[in-house]
Amino acid sequence: MKNQLLLVIVLCTSLAPMRAGAGKLETRWQDDFLLETESGEFLLKIRGNVHLDTRLYQGDQRGAPHGIDIRRARMDLQGRIYQDFGYRVQAELAGEPYIRNAWVNYLARPWLQIRAGQMKVPFSSSWLTTDNNVNFVERGTSSPLYPFFDRGAKLWGEVWSGSLVYELGVYTGVGVDSDVKSGDIDDHQDLAARLFLNPFRSGLYLVAQATWGKQSTPSSRYETGGLRSANYASALWRWRSEQVLRTDGRTHDRIGAKIGERSRLGGELHYLRGPFACSAEYLQVRYVNVSIYHDLFVGSARKTHELIQRSDGFIRSLSVWASVYLTGESKRLTAGGWKTAKPARTIHQDGPGAWELLARYSRSWADQSLFAKTNVTAFAPDDSNNVSAAMLDGAHLAHELTLGLSWTLNPMVRLQLNNVFQWAPSQDRDGDGENDNWLISGAKSNQADPTLKNRKSAWENAIMLRLIFKL
For residues 103 and 114, is the Cβ–Cβ distance under 8 A? Predict the structure, then answer.
C-alpha cells in the first residue's frame, strides 16, 4: 500500500504538466534531482539519504554494545502542483520501515497556509531540524520531551517577510501510523502552538512553543519506550507501570497506568554571527493524574480494578551548545530548524570543505516523586509474582557533555565525530531501590545478552562516528 502511494504521487506529478499543457518537462540537478515544467507550476524533487554509524561505548557497568549501524536509509519525494499545493512523502527503510512524512500543504497566502497528513509536530528547533542537518550525531534529548511525527493538521504562515512564523495544530497525540495503525487510541487529541521570531531580522532568534492534550494510556512512542539518552543506545529512565504478573491466556493479572493529561512547554534563544552560532533550549513535559492500577481480567471482563499509586510531576531538559566554522562558513536557522553550511570550496575544487567545531551541555531532571515505587503482589500469589511498580525508573538527574567535529566534504557528503559523556550524580544512591540515580545502559539497544542489557550505570562515554550520504 505504501509503495503504491509513492508510485501514484510520482506518476500524478510527472503527468500533470502534460495534461495541463504547462510546457516541456525539464530535468536538472541542484543538490537534488528535479523535474520541473517550463512554467514552473509543477515541480518534483527526488531525494534520499543514508546515515552509517559506528559507536564505541565505555562505562562503569556497560550494557550498550559496540556496533556498526545503518542509522537511517530514506527515500523522499517533495513537490509542488499549480504553485498552490505542495506535498511530501518520505519513507524510512532502515530497521522497521514506516512512513514518516505524508502531507499536503495548501498555500492561500504566505501568511495563511494549511497542512494536513502525517508530519513533525511543530515543537523545538532541534527536533524540527532535518536529519541531514543535525548539529550533533544525536539530539540532546528525545520524546516525550520532544513530540514525534503525528497525524493531524496545522494552520501556519509567515508574517513580516518571515520575521514571524506561527503554527497552530491538532494531532492524534500517539505518533505515526506504524505505532497505532487504526488512527487513534481514544477521543482525545493534542493541541500544538509555536511562535518563531526573528525580531530585528538579525542573528537573534526567539522561539516559544507548547502542546497540550488528554491521553488515556501510556503510548509506546512517548512513555513506555523510555527517554533515549544522547548516546542512542541507553536510556535515562523508563516507565515501569506496564507489567504482567500472571496470565494463562484467558486470565490476566497485570499492572497498567492511565494518564489524565500531558502537556509540553518550550523556550529557545539563539544567536548567529558569521561563523559562530550558539543556542539555548529549555523543554518540559508535565504529567497530571497518572494513576497506576492493579487489574484482574477474565477474558475481556475486568473483575478487579485496584488503585495502587497516583502521581503528578514534571520532566525537564536544558540544552546549551555552540559551534564555529573553522573554514569561515555560516549556519542558518529557519522555522523548520537548523541548516548546515555548504563548503565555500569543496574538496573537489581543491578546497578543504567545511570544518565545524561544536560543544554541547545538557541537563535532564525529573521530579523524584515520579520514581516512587509500590510493591504489588498478584491476586493469586506465589513465590515468583511480586513486583515493584512505578511510573519511572532510572536517573532523575543526568548530565551530558558532547564535543564534536564535523567535516562537510561537499553538499552531498558529511562526516560527524562526537564524544558523548553522560553521568548521573550519586544522589540518593544507597541501594534501597527508592529514587536511586542510575543510567540504564543498553536499554534502547538490541543487546542480545540479557545479563548486560539494562545495567545500572553511573556514567557512560560514547565515541560516535557518522557518515551522511545524500542521494
Answer: no
To the question of pTM greater than 0.85 for the whole model, the response is: yes
Rounded Cα gap, residues 12 and 81, in angstroms: 10
- On the 0-12 / 13-18 / 19+ scale of CB atoms within 10 A, 355 is middle
Average the pLDDT over 383-408 and give the result.
91
Burial of 348 (0-12, 13-18, 19+ CB in 10 A): exposed
C-alpha cell at 318: 536544558
Collapsed DSSP state (helix, strand, coil) of residue 127: helix
User: What per-residue confidence (pLDDT) applies to 204?
Assistant: 97
Distance CA 286, CA 121 (A): 17
Least-confidence region, from 7-16, 141-150, 246-255: 7-16
Give the three-class secondary structure for 61: coil
Amino acid at 88: R
Beta strands in 160-275 (DSSP E): 164-171, 190-197, 204-213, 227-228, 235-240, 243-247, 251-258, 261-273
pLDDT digits (tens, 9 = 90+) for 329-387: 999 999 999 999 999 999 989 999 999 999 999 999 999 999 999 999 888 766 567 88
Domain count, the chain: 1
Identify the domain containing residue 429 by its residue range.
Answer: 2-470
We report the CATH number of the domain holding residue 106 as 2.40.160.10
d(CA 204, CA 278): 10
- As a whole number of angstroms, the distance between CA 261 and CA 177 comes to 22
Residues 402 and 161: their CA atoms lie apart, in Å, by 36
Task: Determine the average pLDDT of the residues in 13-37.
Answer: 70
Q: Write down the residue that cell numbers 539494562 correspond to.
A: 454
**Residue (of 205, 121, 109) closest to 167 by Cα position:** 121
- Provide the CB-side half-sphere exposure for 396 (13 A, CA): 20
Q: At 25, which amino acid appears?
A: L
* Alpha helix ranges (H) inside 290-362: none
CA 213 to chain centre: 18
Give me the phi and psi of 467, to 5 degrees please.
Answer: -110, 120
Q: Is the pLDDT higher at 3 or at 319?
A: 319
Contact present, 206 and 335 (Cβ < 8 Å): no
d(CA 69, CA 54): 6
